[in-house]
Amino acid sequence: MRIVLVGPPGAGKGTQATRLAETLHIPHISTGDLFRANISQQTELGKLAKSYMDAGNLVPDEVTIAMAKDRMEQPDAEGGFLLDGFPRNVSQAEALDELLETEDMKLDAVLDLEAPEDEVVKRIAGRRVCRNDSAHVFHVTYTPPKQEGVCDVCGGELYQRDDDSEETVRKRLEVYHTQTEPIIDYYKSQGLVATIAATGPVDEVTRRALEALKRDQ
Ligand SMILES: [Zn+2]
């Protein structure tokens, strides 16, 4: 199956992508991982991407698309893949369609994770990370540490990352609404979109997504 996963920051996209890819036995292709892999392996595309990033500029769509193409041509992606973070605007979606067409492939589904704006803000702005290890993550409401401000795992100090401040989250949501959300209409016109309520327990959201994929087949 070839799937695109779309959703605002804070909707649990990364978590769902990992779980769905595992269940469906297809690789989870995220733009974050693509960038990291290309940069660490110093591929031509990685070097190019890094030159833009070092200059504080956005990496052009062509570079992202070329990285995605390379990844989708790997043997493990023969039976399908789940794209996460790509496409993130309509021109990338059009480029992806062209790319798939040249390979005689089609997308099977676009999963649109939906969560109320106030909830995603609460989810992200409530996150607290340990200064000793960024893998030690808590949430002031959902998974509070035993002692406020102190990591349960190692006793380190918990803090809120700048990226997680309410102001930054609202800005990221704004970018999502203006740039990424239009791809949902683009894919709706192709009859590919399944809207998934991304609220409630993580397991429940995964179950809804898998059911929607079954219905589509
Ligand atoms: Zn810790």
TrEMBL record:
Catalytic activity: AMP + ATP = 2 ADP
Positions that bind AMP: T31, R36, N57, L58, V59, G85, F86, P87, R88, Q92, R161, R172
Pathway assignment: Purine metabolism; AMP biosynthesis via salvage pathway; AMP from ADP: step 1/1
Cellular localization per UniProt: Cytoplasm
Keywords: ATP-binding, Cytoplasm, Kinase, Nucleotide biosynthesis, Nucleotide-binding, Transferase
Region of interest (NMP), ranges: 30-59
Pfam families: ADK (PF00406), ADK_lid (PF05191)
Domain of life of the native organism: Bacteria
Record's subunit section: Monomer.
Enzyme superclass (EC): transferase
Chief location: cytoplasm
Gene name of the encoded protein: adk
Any one GO MF annotation of this record: AMP kinase activity
SUPFAM superfamilies per UniProt: P-loop containing nucleoside triphosphate hydrolases
Domain statement: Consists of three domains, a large central CORE domain and two small peripheral domains, NMPbind and LID, which undergo movements during catalysis. The LID domain closes over the site of phosphoryl transfer upon ATP binding. Assembling and dissambling the active center during each catalytic cycle provides an effective means to prevent ATP hydrolysis.
Cited InterPro entries: Adenyl_kin_sub (IPR006259), Adenylat/UMP-CMP_kin (IPR000850), Adenylat_kinase_CS (IPR033690), Adenylate_kinase_lid-dom (IPR007862), Guanylate_kin-like_dom (IPR008144), P-loop_NTPase (IPR027417)
The protein's name in its UniProt record: Adenylate kinase
Entry binding sites for ATP: G10, A11, G12, K13, G14, T15, R127, V137, F138, G200
Organism: Streptomyces ardesiacus
Reported function: Catalyzes the reversible transfer of the terminal phosphate group between ATP and AMP. Plays an important role in cellular energy homeostasis and in adenine nucleotide metabolism.
Enzyme Commission number(s) of this protein: 2.7.4.3
Family: Belongs to the adenylate kinase family.
Keyword Glycoprotein: no
Location of the Guanylate kinase-like domain: 1-214
